[in-house]
Amino acid sequence: MNILDKITRDKRIEVNLRKQLIPIKQLEQSILFERETISLAKKLKESNTGIIAEHKRRSPSKQIINHGLNGFDVAKGYENAGVCGMSVLTDGKYFGGSLDDLLTARASCNLPLLRKEFIIDEYQIIEAKAYGADVILLIAAILTKAEIKQFSELAKQLHLDVLLEVHNEEELYKSIMPSLDMLGVNNRNLKTFEVSLETSKQLSELIPNDFVKVSESGISNVEAIKILQPYGYKGFLIGENFMKTDDPGESATQFINNLNR
Ligand SMILES: O=C(O)c1ccccc1NCC(=O)[C@H](O)[C@H](O)COP(=O)(O)O
């Protein structure tokens, strides 16, 4: 059983409980459900830097990254740094995140917010909208082609952008469909947790130009971005590199300043 199998096994139990606690009708009545969303894909297309900065407290590969930060400061700091969007991990068991982290980010900034979650049920997409997200993540490795279609079409009806994440060619081929906005290549091998930019390089030419290309994980310096931009990547998802510092916003500011130099 790999880490994604374990996470999705636990997620099914969690989502079934959540559905009983807060029915869909109640989510649909939340104030944020009516909010006009902001397109991350559009922001990335218009940007020269393309940074999506993540709120990530811990992870299966690194354990604790940073537990002591105030979510408000992180979101405000990222916004002041000039990032294009913010990713908020909402999984509790493996990443120490929560939907409260998403709400805090929503209350603190006007960035497009990605709900970084292991989505296996339509309920989580409605929940994402009700808690202020603008974008959802769909992970090809844990979904069938039919689920990717069903979930991405629901997201589009709710005016949410869709970032579809792949790790290899097979996942990419099964996923390409018009209801996606961004295709993300995850550089982290989920069996070994090793990260390699080669994954992004190798898959780039197989991604049709209709989608905004995003490279995810293991990006720890500006050089990595300079290497990936010629492969057509417009978005760069960075978590640990910013979150391991005492001031992720300041770290993102310095990173973007270096990128613009
Ligand atoms: O980060 C992990 O260890 C991890 C393990 C299993 C599934 C997903 C995982 N991470 C989620 C992400 O995709 C990253 O948080 C994101 O791409 C940022 O990565 P990084 O910049 O390397 O923190």
From TrEMBL:
InterPro entries: Aldolase_TIM, Indole-3-glycerol_P_synth, Indole-3-glycerol_P_synth_dom, RibuloseP-bd_barrel
Pathway involvement of the protein, from the record: Amino-acid biosynthesis; L-tryptophan biosynthesis; L-tryptophan from chorismate: step 4/5
Parts of the chain that traverse the membrane: none
Gene Ontology MF terms: indole-3-glycerol-phosphate synthase activity
UniProt-listed Enzyme Commission number(s): 4.1.1.48
Listed name of the protein: Indole-3-glycerol phosphate synthase
Keyword Amino-acid biosynthesis: yes
Keyword annotations of the record: Amino-acid biosynthesis, Aromatic amino acid biosynthesis, Decarboxylase, Lyase, Tryptophan biosynthesis
Catalytic class of the enzyme: lyase
Domain Indole-3-glycerol phosphate synthase: 4-251
Organism in which the protein naturally occurs: Psychroserpens luteus
Keyword Coiled coil: no
Reaction(s) this enzyme catalyzes, per UniProt: 1-(2-carboxyphenylamino)-1-deoxy-D-ribulose 5-phosphate + H(+) = (1S,2R)-1-C-(indol-3-yl)glycerol 3-phosphate + CO2 + H2O
Family: Belongs to the TrpC family.
